[in-house]
Design goal:
Layout: H1 2-10, E1 15-25, E2 37-41, E3 48-56, H2 59-69
Antiparallel strand pairs: 1-2, 1-3
């Protein structure tokens, strides 16, 4: 995910994002399938607001791979 964060910092216009509310669902357990979860929804009445990006232009992948080859 770090490479996507860098791509967003360089070219945010290539991402489709919206402002949504987020909440963390804490799940304390000894089992590996029970991790804390970050939930994002436009329907939350409370929570922290964040920028949620759900799509990225396909050219971002091509550019990132090209930069890695250098």
């Amino acid at each position: 995910f770090d490479s996507l964060a860098v791509a967003y910092a360089i070219s945010p216009e290539r991402f489709t994002c919206s402002r949504l509310s987020a909440q963390i669902r804490y799940r304390r357990s000894l089992f590996t399938g029970s991790r804390d979860q970050l939930l994002v929804s436009p329907d939350f009445a409370s929570g922290s607001e964040l920028s949620y990006c759900n799509d990225v232009d396909s050219s971002v992948k091509v550019e990132l791979l090209e930069r890695l080859r250098r």
